[in-house]
């Protein structure tokens, strides 16, 4: 028994968490749904890896901007007082206007990274996961990702190292950030496998080039500036490097030269001798960099992929029918037309329905090292799965090529206690919006509270904030069918909402995201 347990934990068979979980589901998708079907979108900015907001042949690459932005955001950390760290404080103009943060790379990064809307994920987590995806998709090693970063409400204390500072200042600066002198050499080499020094912000380091293939005159740190590899070390050791912070004409700003040689080249030689050692060292140091957060911030466990993960689940009450839609992802699976996938749907009446699931698409992660196969929960040539509202649904299990997938026996719970009702409708579909959200509440659930949470609401600094709108209990219950009654609220905005409830002090999370503009929201019948 003991050895069996060891065997399973070594293989990582146990799920990282039990689905569903609002925050962990969102972090898991951001981390693992990288390319292809249902990709969250970050990788689209860095594949191919010489993609740059400034254009191809600009000499710049988004991947380099993202890595530098993450470092400069973290580099304000102070291990003594616990302030600073990866908290997206770099989004404040007080920081980007400092001499230690020259160039447009930070703005560009934030524009790209925050263009991906993900509820329940902070900007700092998006920056961290985007950095990991960029590195992994551009030749780099897999990097463990933890979520839970908290966005700063204002700028941090200055402290990003600059090239004209001396070696002792850099050692002291990295020590303040929490890194030893050896780790400093590693982190600088790992970062400077990407990108280079641009002429405009650093005219004294990078000369004008007048090169149509490098329109912004970026002096690259190595010959493969958009690709992770140990060339930054091999070229340095062989004396062929063009790294502008090593062979720059002004020795005052040759900070990489001082840092790389600070231990007699021992670390750089080990990187040049072994691409594997370089990759594994960088995986550790990048993770350390991204996990350096202000004191008090609690990061999650490493987000590993769920082997089986339902996704985009939506339930809509339509008369006597509960319409269900969604998809399920199977990790480490490629497309296979011979595969059979069944969903076993358990209901309140003790019944089980057996549904054959059609394939929906495939996705990949970490530059193609992982594959996932997606299936739709909706039968072929239908838009939703029609369930009997009285029986409802309590959970899902899946059978893949004869093997039962039920999350170790607990199944995949589906809540049908509070669901969107298709009697919801609008009377004005332009500003000022006027619409009514009808929530079908299962009889006998007796929620103490039904409420809507607004999706994507932020404060003036871009931080996600919780906005909840209570749906008042009906004065007189309006039955939608034998087993559900309607709770209604009149709305006057264009936002999207999730339906939630409190039952016996527990939070019940609806999977629906509905609002004005939601598919299926129709015009209210005009009274005559
Ligand atoms: C003493 C420490 C460091 C100094 C003095 C330094 C200095 C510089 C300078 C002057 C640039 C040019 C920026 C521009 O042209 O806009 C640069 C670029 C870059 N740095 Fe560093 N750096 C240091 C450490 C790091 C670390 C630890 C990382 C990440 C782990 C990093 C990642 C990058 C990246 C990816 C770029 C390229 C940006 C691009 O091409 O858009 N640097 N660094
Ligand atoms: C620009 O790059 C292309 C190949 O990518 C090369 O053929 C061309 O000679 C380069 N032009 C200059 C001016 O270096
Ligand atoms: C070299 O760089 C330093 C720091 O930026 C600057 O003060 C100095 O004037 C530069 N020297 C020359 C010769 O340009
Ligand atoms: C480190 O390597 C560089 C590049 O090969 C070389 O120029 C330098 O002299 C070496 N420094 C030490 C201390 O070994
Ligand atoms: C589900 O249905 C398929 C045929 O459509 C059948 O082969 C399979 O045994 C059924 N599974 C269960 C658990 O009933
Ligand atoms: C549906 O409602 C009827 C009438 O209240 C009730 O008898 C029945 O048990 C309910 N069905 C389920 C599956 O909860």
Automatic annotation (TrEMBL):
Keywords: Heme, Iron, Metal-binding, Oxidoreductase, Peroxidase, Signal. It holds the Pfam family peroxidase. Its EC number is 1.11.1.-. GO terms for biological process: cellular response to oxidative stress; hydrogen peroxide catabolic process; response to reactive oxygen species. Residues 1-16 form the signal peptide. The keyword Heme applies. The keyword Signal applies. Residues 121-329 form the Plant heme peroxidase family profile domain. One of its GO terms (molecular function) is peroxidase activity. Destroys radicals which are normally produced within the cells and which are toxic to biological systems. Belongs to the peroxidase family. Cytochrome c peroxidase subfamily. This is Peroxidase. It comes from Mycena venus. The lineage of its organism: Eukaryota, Fungi, Dikarya, Basidiomycota, Agaricomycotina.
